[in-house]
Design goal:
Length: 333
């Protein structure tokens, strides 16, 4: 595997792919047409040097992912809105529009992100602590309690994914998630980017956000084995305060795993890739086509293959292939 530097995210009936500061969102509209929106996004780690330091960059990279993901998701959803947008806005909508004007969409998006983070902390950090606390009467080992809390956290996460995966839109989003991984795996294993090659590529990838979340859960167990406080309120505060630290460490582990071919990092990555079985599904060819369009909008994959797999694709290989195909078409015409 050769690291490509591209990453992405599934959105509603589409894919967002990012390469350095450029990103593109490709969506298949209800009429079957694939539309693409290209834009740039400069991450916080590039704007502020301190944010790019190891163990610091993880939390800001996660924030970048949330911001970019919400932008792409909002744009993709705009193609599938109901006719309700033609109706008169309600009182609350009017209040927001009158108060924030043209910035209302950004305000709503920011509010959704803040609420999402709050709920994630409550469900995946605080709730497992409270549930584990029920067993404190019977378990007196702090190490055992930390392991139990971590297992409960993982169990809640798996249950959550299982429940939402029953929704039709989520099922299709997980299929697009699979097509995103397959495209990246196709290229990073030296294959030409086409539907056939993407289809036979793996839908699991080391750099996936699902793997990141699992690493966070595992590392949190190690942290809370060491960080020990007496009262329930201090335990809750410690879970919240240590989130940036745990995220920073987890990001470094994921980053190393995603760029390394060592057997040790393969072993470290394996549980996360197993977990991806919950969030990635096999896509159909129409979804793969959308993913390919998103990749080609921001990434010169032919140049990448020639530079990283010169034994298969010598310099100028694709230029000669394109010229041969063009000549064949002219002869046919």
């Amino acid at each position: 595997m050769k690291y490509s530097g591209i990453g992405g995210q599934a959105v509603l009936e589409g894919i967002m792919m990012k390469n350095k500061d450029n990103y593109a969102t490709a969506v298949r509209k209800p009429d079957g047409e694939i539309v693409v929106k290209k834009d740039t996004y400069v991450s916080m780690t590039e704007k502020v040097k301190f944010f790019s330091l190891p163990f610091v960059r993880g939390i800001f990279s996660f924030a970048d992912s949330m911001i970019l993901g919400m932008r792409s998701l909002t744009w993709s959803a705009s193609f599938f809105e109901d006719d309700e947008e033609d109706e008169e806005p309600g009182k609350f909508e009017k209040f927001l529009i009158d108060t924030f004007g043209e910035k209302v969409d950004n305000v709503v998006m920011s509010a959704v992100m803040v609420f999402s983070v709050f709920m994630a902390i409550a469900i995946f950090m605080v709730l497992p602590l409270l549930i584990a606390g029920i067993f404190r009467k019977f378990i007196h080992s702090e190490t055992a309690m930390a392991i139990l809390e971590g297992c409960i956290r993982i169990g809640i996460f798996i249950t959550y994914i299982k429940v939402i995966s029953r929704m039709d839109d989520i099922k299709r989003t997980f299929m697009y998630h699979g097509s995103e991984h397959k495209c990246i795996n196709c290229l990073e294993h030296g294959l030409v980017l086409n539907v056939e090659n993407v289809r036979k590529s793996s839908k699991e990838h080391k750099r996936c956000g699902t793997s990141f979340l699992l690493i966070v859960m595992v590392i949190s167990i190690l942290f809370f084995m060491v960080v020990r406080v007496d009262t329930i309120w201090l335990r809750i505060v410690s879970r919240i305060v240590l989130i940036p630290v745990i995220a920073g460490v987890s990001y470094e582990v994921l980053r190393l795993a995603g760029t390394s071919n060592s057997k040790i990092m393969d072993i470290v990555s394996r549980p996360g890739m197993w977990m991806q079985g919950l969030t990635t599904k096999e896509p159909d060819d129409s979804m793969i086509e959308v993913a390919i369009v998103a990749v080609e909008a921001v990434f010169d994959w032919k140049k990448y293959l020639e530079e990283n797999f010169p034994e298969q694709y010598p310099a100028g290989y694709f230029e000669r292939e394109d010229q041969t195909e063009k000549n064949a078409q002219e002869i046919t015409a």
